[in-house]
Amino acid sequence: METLVMNNGMVDVNEDGYLKNPAQWTPELAHGIAKEVNIELTDRHFEVLNWLRAKQAEGVALSIRKVGNSGLVDIKEFYQLFPGGPLKISSKIAGIPKPVSCI
Amino acid sequence: MNDVMEKIQTKPTEAPAKKEKAKVKKVLIICSKGKIEDVYAALVMANGALMEGIEAKMFFTFFGLEAITKKNADHLHTATVGNPAFMPGLPTMLGGLPGFEAFASYMMKKEMDKLDMPHVTEFIQMIDAGGGEIYACKLAADMFHLKKEDFLPEVKGIITVGDMYALADGEGTQIIFI
């Protein structure tokens, strides 16, 4: 089992670096993962991350379109917040599984 | 003769050059068809590229232009005649009955809705918001008498084939033709 050592803690991640257990997520961990992809997290980022985590916990299959229709952030801003593949990158930072959506 | 063979055999074999795994950095998707399934294939691939952090450009030409006109973008049809994969066994004459194509297209769109697939105009807005660029072909636009104002606002311009190739400039670009 692969583990990610960060902030003196250990969390289990899969081969792509996604957390296996969203419950192990902490905001500090998010900062750590975000640094690896050169993103400095702001409160705005955390609003999106928390929304993603809440939806994932409800069992919603996340897609770019759903994020765009969330009323929280539009697609353009989503791409700006998490450049270079927003849904995957934000999911990784939010500590939820890799999205499987094609849209 | 033997000497020759020896020479051939002793010729050192060149080690295969080690190549870095080259990532796709950009896609140029050319959509030349106006059937709903062809247009969606183009849109899904363009949007999918952006989702992966790959740059995406789209070039619509010929019947593909229908997909980016204000008038018809959300009213594309599938072909129920001359499409053997559509309801195999369906007699061609039935597929040609008035209203059949509209009905089949309606059913297809209903199934797409279930999968959370956006309508064409919304899909194009998503691609635009994600940094994708959408262009219309000048030659085809002239042929169909279409002007800038006939196209959706996300269409960046009506360009020539030369301009289209310029969109594909740079290493790691793939051109996809539909």
Q: Any overview of this molecule?
A:
The complex is a heterodimer of chains A (103) and B (178). The mean pLDDT of chain A is 86. Chain A is globular and about 35 Å long. Chain A is mostly helical. Chain A has one domain. In chain A, a hairpin with a 2-residue loop joins strand 1 and strand 2. The termini of chain A are far apart. Chain A has 5 helices and 2 strands, in the order ββααααα. Chain B is of the alpha/beta class. Chain B has a domain of 107 residues: Hypothetical Protein Ychn, Chain: A, CATH 3.40.1260. Helices cover 38% and strands 15% of the residues of chain B. Chain B contains 7 helices and 5 strands; from the N terminus they run αβαβαααβαβαβ. Chain B has a 5-stranded parallel sheet with strand order 4-3-2-1-5. In chain B, helix 2 packs parallel to helix 5. The longest helix of chain B is centred in the N-terminal third of the chain and has 16 residues. The termini of chain B are far apart. At the A-B interface, helix 3, helix 4 and helix 5 of A face helix 2 and helix 5 of B.
Query: What is Rg of chain B?
Result: 23 Å
CATH topology of the domain at 28-77 and 121-177 in chain B: Hypothetical Protein Ychn, Chain: A
The count of helical stretches of chain A stands at: 5
Largest sheet of chain B: 5 strands, parallel
Itemize the secondary structure elements and their pairings.
The complex is a heterodimer of chains A (103) and B (178).
Chain A: E1 2-6, E2 9-13, H1 27-36, H2 43-57, H3 64-68, H4 75-81, H5 86-94
Antiparallel strand pairs in A: 1-2
Helix pairs in contact in A: 1-5, 2-5
Chain B: H1 2-10, E1 26-31, H2 36-51, E2 55-60, H3 92-95, H4 100-114, H5 120-129, E3 133-137, H6 138-143, E4 155-159, H7 161-167, E5 173-177
Parallel strand pairs in B: 1-2, 1-5, 2-3, 3-4
Helix pairs in contact in B: 2-5
